[in-house]
Amino acid sequence: MPKRKICVVVTARPSYSRIKSALTAIKAHPTLELQLVIAGSALLDRYGNAADFIERDGFKAAAKVFMVLEGENPTTMAKTTGIGVMELTNVFYNLQPDAVVTIADRFETIATSIAAAYQNIPLVHIQGGEVTGSIDEKVRHANTKLADLHLVSSEDARGRVIKLGEDPEKVINTGCPSIDLVKEICTEENLNFDPIEKYGGVGEDLDWKKGYAVVMQHPVTTEYKKAREHILETLEAINKLDFPVFWFWPNVDAGSDGTSNGIRTFREMVKPKNIHFFKNMDPLDFLRLLKHSRVLVGNSSAGIRECSYLGVPVVNLGTRQNRRLRGKNVKDVPHQRDRIYEAVKEAFHSDKHPISQIYGDGDAGIRIAEILATSELSFSKTISY
Amino acid sequence: MPKRKICVVVTARPSYSRIKSALTAIKAHPTLELQLVIAGSALLDRYGNAADFIERDGFKAAAKVFMVLEGENPTTMAKTTGIGVMELTNVFYNLQPDAVVTIADRFETIATSIAAAYQNIPLVHIQGGEVTGSIDEKVRHANTKLADLHLVSSEDARGRVIKLGEDPEKVINTGCPSIDLVKEICTEENLNFDPIEKYGGVGEDLDWKKGYAVVMQHPVTTEYKKAREHILETLEAINKLDFPVFWFWPNVDAGSDGTSNGIRTFREMVKPKNIHFFKNMDPLDFLRLLKHSRVLVGNSSAGIRECSYLGVPVVNLGTRQNRRLRGKNVKDVPHQRDRIYEAVKEAFHSDKHPISQIYGDGDAGIRIAEILATSELSFSKTISY
Amino acid sequence: MPKRKICVVVTARPSYSRIKSALTAIKAHPTLELQLVIAGSALLDRYGNAADFIERDGFKAAAKVFMVLEGENPTTMAKTTGIGVMELTNVFYNLQPDAVVTIADRFETIATSIAAAYQNIPLVHIQGGEVTGSIDEKVRHANTKLADLHLVSSEDARGRVIKLGEDPEKVINTGCPSIDLVKEICTEENLNFDPIEKYGGVGEDLDWKKGYAVVMQHPVTTEYKKAREHILETLEAINKLDFPVFWFWPNVDAGSDGTSNGIRTFREMVKPKNIHFFKNMDPLDFLRLLKHSRVLVGNSSAGIRECSYLGVPVVNLGTRQNRRLRGKNVKDVPHQRDRIYEAVKEAFHSDKHPISQIYGDGDAGIRIAEILATSELSFSKTISY
Amino acid sequence: MPKRKICVVVTARPSYSRIKSALTAIKAHPTLELQLVIAGSALLDRYGNAADFIERDGFKAAAKVFMVLEGENPTTMAKTTGIGVMELTNVFYNLQPDAVVTIADRFETIATSIAAAYQNIPLVHIQGGEVTGSIDEKVRHANTKLADLHLVSSEDARGRVIKLGEDPEKVINTGCPSIDLVKEICTEENLNFDPIEKYGGVGEDLDWKKGYAVVMQHPVTTEYKKAREHILETLEAINKLDFPVFWFWPNVDAGSDGTSNGIRTFREMVKPKNIHFFKNMDPLDFLRLLKHSRVLVGNSSAGIRECSYLGVPVVNLGTRQNRRLRGKNVKDVPHQRDRIYEAVKEAFHSDKHPISQIYGDGDAGIRIAEILATSELSFSKTISY
User: Fold this and answer.
1) pLDDT by residue (tens digit) across B264-308?
2) Closest by CA position to A85, among listed D249, B89, D351
3) A332-335 — which CB contacts under 8 Å span 24+ positions?
4) pLDDT at C224
């Protein structure tokens, strides 16, 4: 029997972390063949060139697709998606996969979904059913309605996908593959590398060994004009703190320029003494950095997801993670410098939380590969009500 | 106060009939400005060039967009959609509408939805919530998840859109605007034109005045290789009947070639005596032709929708209209020549059914315009559960 | 030493005939690897699906690219070219050829040229330097200016490419590969197949064994509104003749609809008794049909090129082949039915001409493969004056 | 009589300077209507957002087109061009201009040429016939072969376009419109603004009043991997000089990242004391800065063109301006730090050169407008030999 060809499309650095353990399991599975497509910002230096990490991890791309239109505004996001549909259609047409896997909710993931669904290729959606409240949510649920098989990350999400009219047999809670990576590094007692030495970055050379915070704040798409305002609140709050902070640049969504420019200007003018900036980091090293940090600040989903398992306190800013299932380690705070300052200071000095498995037990990747190998793959469905 | 700019995208001939009365009402409304975009197969001679009808009806296009890639297969459908996203994004960027209206469930309608939703333009979806069971259904429900305001055609559909997690206040049963056209011609006692004289077409010159049937059969996208087989069953059945039949060529979905070639070959070889073929017809004339016919055969949604109000018997073939809400005038029959033959013969000699308002009372257009003029327009939403 | 990878892009049925012998020679060459890309109308049933012929001839496509936008007007021709640039760029990026071959002058060939030249892949242009006077000529000479190596079909063309500022060492007269096919069938004494039996087609069943004519008339792009008028002149002239005629449908250029509709309407209304219509034919069979015909009528380049070697009389209509180098077998006639009628009648009853080698000696394919294997490949050049 | 609609496409900041005086003259002309299209990097903040300057100068865009694909490599340059063809075709289809103007030789200008030529719109090419030796040259001459009217900048260029087979009556030496701007500011005795105060930028606050140099170095497309190496040679040379230097960031060609990263790294690590960096400047202010500088260093065409009229000494680096007609003010130097250092030092202390009119007398804009208003516009041509 020929192996099932599973085509996974990775379009951004964070998506890679969310799928890596599944990629490993698919590649290792005796009856599966992995067809990895690297596309979008995952190919771009400006966004950390995930392709480099991916290839260093031993994966080989079956195709690479440049599709990100410059401009970082809602108009170019839409056009990027259109280009993605055109390009990925070609890719799938030539690769002839037995199933296509699309990940989560980034704007360009719907390009993968359309290219597969319209060509009658069974579409598997990872991480459907979650709730955030921005354009991401429109995209995520639209992906659900285009997909044939749903591998979700929590019971909460599973219930929601079923309510969306999907056949319960086609909605399986595998846990989130991102937790697999967390589990992998979770037993390491100390941070086993020097972040500044290994990753360079810009800004002060910090003495982080006695405890540090991490910041990662992305623009919120539907309010992108406010991105600059929001980031300044965080910058002002962080700048007042007396402990070292590692700060990560935002990803490629609309408004990234607002956020990036905010950071750049602040750096030039204020020259903050306690912040060191990174463009990107190997995903495992990033998790290590998180695990050994005192607090994560920002609106990254890593705060909601990975940190639940790690038990690291999180100061979650604004609306980006609204309504996403969260553990007790998360404190929600609005974009106000005083509130941010207080919450981060308090979290920094608080204890770690116990492990929570709301997003999985750390074996999602293997579970996903097994399901892809054994479940019936179809591309025809109808709503359940 | 400036008028609200309402951008309606018409991508195909049948979509025009479904929205025409709403276009008229929007154009006439004192606080609305209509921005009409004509795109896709609505511009192409091969598919009846709806643009001609539209302009003859007094509407002016704010933009025209060629986007249909040749090939009529699943691959070109997907790529057409990608091109549509790119092009329509430009169009909306330049027109700056206050809301965009997308219609129903054709594959390319999701291009309209993405181009609007990603640019934070409030998206209004007409005719969501219905059920069919093919790729159309994936597209329709994905449109629902991208849309902010849902103007549905039946109570049945309204319930389904709400179940999909939409805010009930944003889901309004206006009835279907296609019924408005039906109401308009419904009082005419006889067919007031000679179809062959007015529309030419090819095939026999029929004596239709003593009663005739109409056939309209589209390929079913996810089974497009069977299109030829299916159409031959219908052709064989119809060819055996002893009354005149008007037959309409299918639209542009994948497999259209299978269907079209089937018809073309049958014509060349069998030279059927009782069939006359049309490429297209003014939508009102088409309704007139339906109203005065004895039976409609095929899988057109007109059989489900318009014929419910008209009370014309329908022999509905195959799965294309599966699970769509239907009146008592519809008889479902598989793609088997004998079953088709029997059903059509029986329906031809049966009586008309009474008017049914399951798809509206004939005032949907005015209702839609009023809602677009007065309801709050937003582009931010979250799932209700 | 690894083989040189030679990527040849075939975008239309006639281009395939023009390159077939070179494809065979490249495939057979010990130090070359053929990467065949089939694109554009070569994939479409409406234009004779050259892909079928190509694969039946034993070639395997490295990639297939759907890129023809529907509409057949100047706007869709331009957009098709844009799509082609996007798609072919991807294809070359993934195939990493050592050289790309673009053929002649069809509008979409410039897409191949841009995709290669911009990616610094050495570009080989076949059949540059010829003159016609329409948009084709703009495209052909623009291809020359983007190309690095020029394999031309005649001394006349070689001189012109050099005048265009190209390095004479990079301009080589190989002869036209289309003549290779002609040479191959040139010794066959009789037509060894029954065209109607083998290819079907529509129209009268002709008794062609005592002599027949062939017609092939394409729309002239920059005058596409006149296409219908022009084709009617030819149809009227041919209809008056008293010998059998095989007529081929036009290719995909803008205005094809004018020409096609002209033919279709004429058929329906006039029902010509002496004409049989074909959509397409295996290229070798087409040459056989030409070789044994009494006269070729129309504006096909086959009249100028293949028929010079065959010695078949040609009645060449209108401006499409203007200024192309021609043999003594060609008589130029304007689009006037009387003039056409007289010229065709006279040619039909005249003798064959002797073989002319102005377009090559029949060994172009082997010569091209050898040059591709041995010449220096570069992508950097400057004008010679 | 309706005005002639002249559509000018500006795709980059430097192109705007090259056409500005013509835009002014077209806008002011009684029988012309200007349709200005702003596209490509001219819309992007990263490349100086020329759109802002353009609108501040009182021009209004008839359309804006986002088309630059991220990645800045040969592959994305090619795909950007494909997107440009698609988009600009739409734009011209909707604007229906009487002529389209394309400028010079940037890779994306061929998109304008194809979109116009294929739609049978007369195409006017500005600044054809020049020689450089990179991909630009392929593009420029291909533009010439697609264009119908050639408005060139020098007698040298005129001769070359005619040799390319263009009708001498269609090749007019108007001089270069960029010289018009030079003439405009040429009488100002001192720099009438403080560059750092007005434009910010980053780096040292220099005392420039006693004499300064300007640097502008772009990556050379076909050698883009060397971009970083080349820029470092220049940075090292300039860093050793003892006078102040204003340095401009490169534009959007492939390799820009190599160049930009080279500069960025050098800044972080070396912190040069005598260099101040600008992203961009109002074109007139840039000319003022040039006029009052002691020397221009780099490979910008401004050194060849504008500085010939200004008489400012130029140290021209590498191959980018190879074979372009130049005045006596230009000294050519390879990418070697010592050679650069010596040449810049010598030029800094040398005298100005007299005005040269090899690129025009400063009235090109008015001449261009008049020609566009009065010359016959056609889209049909054939090569002259």
Assistant:
1) 889 888 999 999 999 878 888 999 999 999 999 999 989 999 999
2) B89
3) A335/A229, A335/A230, A335/A233, A335/A234
4) 59
Q: How far apart are CA C280 and CA C216, in angstroms?
A: 11
Nearest to D237 by CA among D270, D203, D279: D270
Residue D65: closest CA among chain B residues belongs to which residue? B90
Query: Which residue among B70, B75, B202 places its CB closest to the CB of C70?
Result: B70
Six-digit token pair at A249?
A: 């640049």
Q: Which residues of A touch C94 (CB under 8 A)?
A: 63-64
Give the architecture-level CATH label for domain A4-177+361-374. 3-Layer(aba) Sandwich (3.40)
CA distance D203 to B134: 61
Does D126 contact chain C (CB < 8 Å)? no
Q: Does B264 touch chain C (CB under 8 A)?
A: no
- D320: chain C residues, CB-CB within 8 Å: none
CB A125 within 8 A of CB A149: yes
**What are the 10-residue block averages of pLDDT along chain A, 385 residues in total?**
95 90 98 97 86 94 94 92 96 96 95 97 97 86 98 97 98 96 91 93 88 92 72 95 93 61 86 90 91 96 93 94 91 97 96 94 98 96 93
Interface predicted TM-score of the whole assembly (ipTM), two decimals: 0.88
Segment 22-81 of chain D within 8 Å of chain C by CB: 74-75, 77-79, 81
Could you tell me the pTM of the whole model?
Answer: 0.87
Name the superfamily (CATH) of residues A187-348.
Glycogen Phosphorylase B; (3.40.50.2000)
Tens of pLDDT, residue by residue over A363-384, are: 999 999 999 999 999 998 999 9
Chains in touch with A (3+ beta-carbon pairs under 8 Å) read: B, C, D
Digit-coded pLDDT (tens) for D27-76:
999 999 999 999 999 999 878 788 998 999 999 999 999 999 998 889 99
Q: Which of residues 351-380 of B touch A (CB under 8 A)?
A: 379-380
Contact D383 C144 (CB under 8 A): no
| Distance from C-alpha of D62 to C-alpha of B113, rounded to nearest angstrom | 25
pLDDT at B255 over 50: no
Sequence ranges of the domains in chain A: 4-177+361-374, 187-348
* CA max distance for chain C: 64
Over residues C290-294, the mean pLDDT reads: 96
Question: Going by DSSP bridges, is the β-strand pair C171-173/C202-203 parallel, antiparallel, or unpaired?
Answer: unpaired
Q: Which residues pair with D214 in a beta bridge?
A: D246, D296
Q: Which residue of C has its CA nearest to A65?
A: C90
Inter-chain residue contact C202 with B257, CB threshold 8 Å? no
Q: Which residue of D has its CA nearest to A45?
A: D71
Are C131 and C322 a contacting pair, CB within 8 Å? yes
Nearest residue on chain B to A162, judged by CA atoms?
B164
Nearest CB among A69, A75, A202 relative to D69 is that of A69
Q: How far is D158 from chain C (nearest CA, A)?
A: 12
Q: Name which of A43, A67, A70 is nearest D68 (Cβ-Cβ).
A: A70
Do residues C38 and C13 make contact, with C-beta atoms less than 8 angstroms apart?
no
Q: Are the Cβ atoms of D222 and C120 closer than 8 angstroms?
A: yes
Q: Which CATH number fits domain D4-178+360-374: 3.90.1520.10, 3.40.50.300, 3.40.50.2000, 3.40.1010.20?
A: 3.40.50.2000
Measured at the CA of B49, the angle between CA B43 and CA B53, to 5 degrees, comes to 110
Mean pLDDT score, B63-74: 92
* CA–CA dist D250, C33 (Å, integer): 40
Residue C120 — left, alpha, or beta (φ > 0 → left; ψ -120 to 50 → alpha)? left
**Tokens linked to A23:** 């990629």
Rounded Cα distance between C106 and B121, Å, is 41
